[in-house]
Amino acid sequence: MDLLKGRQNVAARIGQVKRELGLGVLDRAREEEVLRRATSLCGEDLPEEAVRSIFTEIVSAARAVQQPPSVSFLGPEGTFCNQAALNIFGHSTTLRSADTISEVFDLVEKGICGHGVVPVENSYEGSVNQTLDLLYRHDLKITGEAFLRIRHHLLGRADSVEEIKVLYSHPMALGQCRSWIRENLPKVSLRGAESTSAAARRAAREAGAGAIGSRTAGLSLGLDILVENIEDSPNNITRFLVIGKDRTSATGRDKTSLVFTLRHEPGALHRALEPLASRRINMNRIESRPMKRGSWEYLFFVDPQVGIIGGTGGMGAWFADLLEQTGLRVIRVGRSTPVTPVDAARQCDVTVVSVPIADTVRVIRDVAPLVPENSLLMDLTSIKTAPMGAMLEFSRSQVVGLHPLFGPSAPRGETGLRIVVCRGRGARGLDWIRKVLSTAGLVVVEMTAQEHDRVMGVVQGINHFVTLSLALCVERSGIDLKDLIDCSTQTFARRLERVRAVLDQPAGLFGSILMENPTAGAFIDEHLHAAEEVARTVRDGERRDFEEMFARLKRFFHQPYHTQGGKTV
C-alpha cells in the first residue's frame, strides 16, 4: 500500500510538470510499455490477463491525480463497448455514454471528450461499416485498439426459456447468436434494440420478454441468466478502436491504418499497393466502402438484415413473418419499439416502409436520405406512383416497390398468393427480392408504378366505388335489411357480405385507395358514364340495344388472355 501511495505522489508531481510544459496527460505509448513490462514478469500462477487488468487500474489511478481523461463510448452502460473502454482506460476515468457511433465521433471532434471507443470489427459478423465510414468523414486518428471476447447470455425474468415470447438485442448480437436462436427459440419474435443494454432494460420491464446481452447488463438490472454463452462461435471477438485528435508516439510494435481513394481506372489499386509489396510490408486486411457520391453501385445481399417500418401490425407484420420463414433476420419497427425508423434506415441492409397510405410518402421523405447507397429501400403499399417517386427522389439507394394482392388476414405459409413488384433503381436489389418472394411461394407480377396504378384504378378503385355505391343504394331503398337478406340469391348475398367486410375496415384505408390513386378519379367518371348508358338503355326499353350491349360485353370477357406464368385462360 505504501508503494501505491508513493506512486500516486510521483504521478501528481509528473502531472504538474506536464501542465507547465503544455503536455497532454495521456501517453498511450508509455502506458503500453508499462503494461508489457508488467505482463512479461508474470508466472504460471498469475495469468497475463489478470496482471494486465491489475496494472491497468494502477495506471488509471495515477492518471486520475493528474487529470482524468474523458472518454466517450457507444452506450448505454453495460454494453460491450463500455466494458472495452474500462479495460483500456480503467475505472478512474470520466466516461460518457453516447447513443450512436456517430455521436462518439462528434463528441471527440468537438473536444467535449478527449477520446472515444468504438467497435470496428467482429470475428463472426465482419466489419462495422458505420465506423469505417466515419473514419473517412472525420479528421480523427486511431490511437489504440483492444480486443474483447464476446460472451452472449440469454437474460430475462422468466422461470424457463419456454416462457420467452419476444427476444430483444442489438442486430449484431442477434446475428452472432443466429444458429442458437433458430434451434432453441424458432417461434420467438425477434426485436432490434440500439444496444444489448437497452435490450436488457426492455426485457426487465416487459413480461414474457428476454434479451441477449452481457452478464454485467443482466446483473445490473436484476435479470436472471437463463442460458450462458449462446453465441454461435466460441471465438467471437470484437476489435475496438480508440480515437482521438493527438498523435501517439511510436513503440516499435505499432499497427498503421490508411484510408485512401482511387480513380476508377484499371490498375489503380495495384499501383497504390505496390510500394507496400516492394518494401515487404504485410497487410492484415483491405476493405472497400462506397463513396456515396459516385454513379457506380454494388450490393452485398447474402444474408441481409431487414428493417420493416410498421412491422408490428397489419401487412408489415405479415411480411415480417414471411421473411423470417425464409431465414432472414427481421427488425420490426413500430410506435413503441426501441428501434426507431431512423435506426432501421441507418443500420439495416434492407428497409421496408409499411405504413398507412396517407403516411407513406411522409415517412419515406424522413428515412430515405438515411438509407446507405448500397442498401435496398422498398415500400409495401397499394399505391405506387407517389411512393416510388419519393423513394427515387430522396434516396440514393436501390429501390423496389411492392404491393401484395391480398390482406394481412391471408394465412401464413400459403403458396400461390400474388404480389406486384415495381422496378425502381438498381438490378441487384430487384433480383434479390424476386428470389426471396419466389422461394416463399408467392407469384410475382412485374410492372411499372404507372402501369400498377392504372390497373389498380379498376381493380381497387372501381371495385370499392361500386361496393360503397351499392351500400348507399341499399340504405336509401327503404327496404328492411332483414327482408332483403331473407330474399337474397346466393350471388346477392355474397355481395352484401362483401359490403359488410369493406365497412368493417378503417374508412381511411378505402378513402386513400379512392382518393390517392392518380387514375381512380378518371375510372370513376368512366364508370358513371357506363352506368348512365345502361340506365338509359333500360329506361328507353330498347331490348335490341340492350341485347347488343350484352353480347358485346360477353365477347370481351370470354376472350382468352395470358398470365405472366404463360398460362392461357
Description:
The protein is an alpha/beta fold. The protein has helices at 2-21, 28-39, 48-66, 80-89, 101-109, 129-137, 171-176, 178-184, 196-205, 215-220, 268-278, 314-325, 341-347, 357-367, 385-394, 427-439, 449-476, 481-486, 490-503, 507-516, 520-540, 543-557, and strands spanning 70-74, 94-98, 115-122, 126-127, 141-149, 153-156, 166-169, 189-192, 209-213, 224-227, 237-244, 305-309, 329-333, 350-353, 376-380, 398-404, 418-425, 443-446. The strands form three sheets. It has a seven-stranded mixed beta sheet, sandwiched between helices. Strands 1, 2, 3, 4, 5 and 11 form a six-stranded mixed beta sheet that branches. Strand 17, helix 16 (427-439) and strand 18 form a beta-alpha-beta unit. The longest helix is centred in the C-terminal third of the chain and has 28 residues, at 449-476. The protein is elongated, with a radius of gyration of 31 Å. The termini are far apart.
How many strands, what sense, and barrel or not for the largest sheet?
7 strands, mixed
- Provide the structure class: alpha/beta
N- to C-terminal distance:
92 Å
Relative helix content: 40-55%
pLDDT < 50 stretches:
293-303
Strand content: 15-25%
Spatial ordering of strands, largest sheet: 13-12-14-15-16-17-18
Radius of gyration: 31 Å
Q: Name the shape in a single word.
A: elongated
Average pLDDT over all residues: 82
Overall strand count: 18
**Number of helical elements:** 22
